[in-house]
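Teaching note: in complex prediction, the entire set of molecules is handled at once rather than each chain in isolation. The prompt given to students was simply: 'Predict the structure of this complex.' The entities are:
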Amino acid sequence: MSTLLIVALVGALAVVGYVLGVRRAMASADGDLRLLHSLKSYYGQNVALLVLVPSLLVLVIWMTVQPLLIEQSVLGMISNTDVAEGSSRSLMMADVRRVADGLDVAVAQGAMSREAASDVRVDFTNVRERLASVGVAVGSTVTQTTLEAAQKFRALSGTGNMVRGIVVLLIAAAGFGYALKQTDKDFRARNVVERGILVLLIAAASIAVLTTLGIVFSLIFNTIDFFESFPGADFFFGTRWEPSFSGRGGASDLGFLPLIWGTLYISIIALVVAVPLGLFAAIYLSEYASNSVRSIAKPVLEVLAGIPTIVYGLFALLTVGPLLVNIFGADGLLGVNWMSGGTAAMTAGLVMGIMLIPFVSSLSDDIINAVPQAMRDGSYGLGATQSETIRQVILPAALPGIVGAVLLAASRAIGETMIVVLGAGAAASLSLNPLEAMTTVTAKIVSQLTGDGEFNSPETMVAFALGMTLFVITLALNVVALIIVRKYREQYD
Amino acid sequence: MNDMRIVKRDVDMNDIKISAKGVQVYYGDTHAIKDVNVEIKDKTVTAFIGPSGCGKSTFLRCLNRMNDTIDICRVEGSIQIEGEDIYDKRVDPVQLRAKVGMVFQKPNPFPKSIYDNVAYGPRIHGLARTKADLDEIVEKSLRRGAIWNEVKDRLHAPGTGLSGGQQQRLCIARAVATEPEVLLMDEPCSALDPIATAQVEELIDELRENFSVVIVTHSMQQAARVSQKTAFFHLGNLVEYGETGQIFTNPQDPRTESYITGRIG
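The expected output is the structure of the full assembly:
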C-alpha cells in the first residue's frame, strides 16, 4: 500500500469524521445550537484531529524506523568475504538498494513478472543487462549475494509496507470511533481543539530548535572524527595551509591560523567601511531627513540588503578589483607597485563593507529612533544644536545598541563566502598587506568540499572543523551582541 | 489654605518680559492656538491652566521655539522677548533656547552622570573657562535646584538613578545652569508624588527672584499656590488672563468660572 494512498484514506476518514461529528453533536442536542458546550464545528474538528494526528504520527515514525531495521537485517546477509577488494559494506549496501529499486521498476514496467523478480538468479539471467533495459544502471556486475540481499530487501519492505498500511488505518479508525463515541452535547470539544492547536504550535517551534541541534551535533561528531585523524595542535596553531589530496601523496598542512587571519582581516576592512557609512546614513535618516526623503531613501538603502552576495562577488571581481589595481598596481595612478592582481583582501573587504551598510544602518536607525524624544527635547531646550544633541546625548544613549548592531554585522562578515571566493583570491597567507590575496575559513570550506575527494580523508573532514570553529566564533559574537542589545532595552522601558 | 498669602505677596516688578501678539499655531490643518495676546512680567510666576488639549503646552513651546522641531507645526503672529521678535529670521533658535530654559513634564535626565547633566548646558555655551569655574556653576545650579545636599556625595553617579522628584529637580538645576532669563515649565509636577511636588513648588517660588517663570499645570491648586498671574486657555483661545487671586476668586468670564469650579474640563 503506497504512502500516498494511506494518507488519502486517512484524510478521507477525517473529512467523514468531521461531518459525522458535527451531525452527532447536533443530534445529541436535538438540533438546538445553544445546548451545545462548544460551537458545532469544534466537534467536527475534534473527530478530525483524533483521526489525523495519531495515525499520521505513527506513519512518520514507521517510515523512519522501517528502512533502518530492514537494512540491519539485510546487512547481516552480507558476510565479510563477500565484500570485494576496494569496496566496503556501505558500498555493497548501496548496490543492494539499487538492485532492489531496479527490480521494482522492472516489475512496474512489466519487463519482469512479480514471481520472476523474486526468483531471478544470476546464473541464468544477466540481471545487470535486464535492469539496464528498463533504465536502471547498476555500477558493477550483480553478484548472487547482492541479488539475494536485494530480493530479501524487497520482500521485507513489501511486508513492512503492507503491515504499515494496515496499522495506520486501524489507528485512524480507532481514533474515529473513539472521538465519535465521545461526541455529546456536554463534551468540551473546544478545549480539546484548543489544546490540539497548542500542540501543533509547539511542534512547529520544536522542529526549528531540533534542526538547529541536529546541525550542531553533526558538526560536533564530524569534527571529532577529524581530530582523530589529524592532531588538534597542528590544526589550531599551524601557520601553513597546504592541503594535498590523497593520491598525490604527502601529508597535508592544515593550519587554521592563515585562514582565521584572512577572515578577521577582511571582516575588519569590511567593518571599517560599513560602520561609519552605515551609522552616518542612519543618523541622517533618523534625525535630519524629512519624511519624504526618508520614505524614498530608506527603502533604496535596504535594496542593497536584497542583492544576492554572488552579485556582490561579481562586482568585486570585475569592477572593484581592476579599479584597485589601476590605483595601487604597477603603472597605476599612484605609481607604486603594491598590488599584483585584482583579487585581494582589500577588494573583498570593500565590497563586503558595502554589503553590510544597510545592515548597520537599518539596525542603528531603529536604535536611534528608540532613544526617547524627551532626551532630544531636553537637549534642544538647553540650547544645544542638532549635531551637539546627536553627539553628546543620542549617540551615548544609543551606543550599546549600536555596538550590538556592529557585532551582528561582524558575525555576518565572518560568515560571508561568495564575495571572498570571488574577490579575495585563494592563497592562504599570513600577510599584513591588505592588497595581497588572502583567503578565509568559509572560502576554504568551499574549496575543500568541491571536487572528487572522498568524505573520509582529513583534507575533506577539515571542513567540519573549520565550520565548527566559525560557528563557535559567530555564536559568541551573536550572544555578546544580544546581551548588549537586551541590556540597552532595559534602560528605557 | 495658605494660597492667599502667596498670592498677596507684592508683585512690584512691572517690566514686561515676554509680549505675544496675535499668535496663531497650526499643526498641519489643525488650528491649535487662536489669536493669543499675552504679556508676561519679569520676576513673576505665570501659570497657564486649562483642560487637556486646550493649547497651553503648545503656546509654552512657542516661547522658546521648541515647536520648530515638529515638522508640521506653523506659528504666526509675533512673540517678543524684551522687545526682540524671537521668530525673526536673524534670531538663532539655539541661542534663544539658552536664554529661555525649559523643564519638561516627565523628568528627562540624560543617561550621564549628575555632574555631566548639569554641566551640559554650560559646556555647550562655553560658560566656564576652567574646570573650577564649571564645578562652581554645577554646585550653584544644584543648590538653586534644591538638590545639592542630596547629591553632593555622588555627583558622578548616573542621573537616571535618582528618584522621580530628584530627577525633576536635577532637570531644573540643569535648566538654570545656563543662566536663562525665562524658565518654562511644562507640567513639571505631573509625574511626581505630593512630597516631591511640594519641594518643586517651593523651588519655583525661590526661582522667581532671578527668573521669569512660566508654568503649565493641570492642578488649579498648584496654580493658585505658586503663581502671581494666571492665564486660562480653552479650545485654543486665551479666555482670561489676570492676577491669580482675581482669576480664582472673581473670574470675569463664565467659562473660567465653570472650569475652576469643576463644571467643564
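Point out the following to students. The radius of gyration of chain B is 18 Å. The longest strand of chain B covers residues 16-27.
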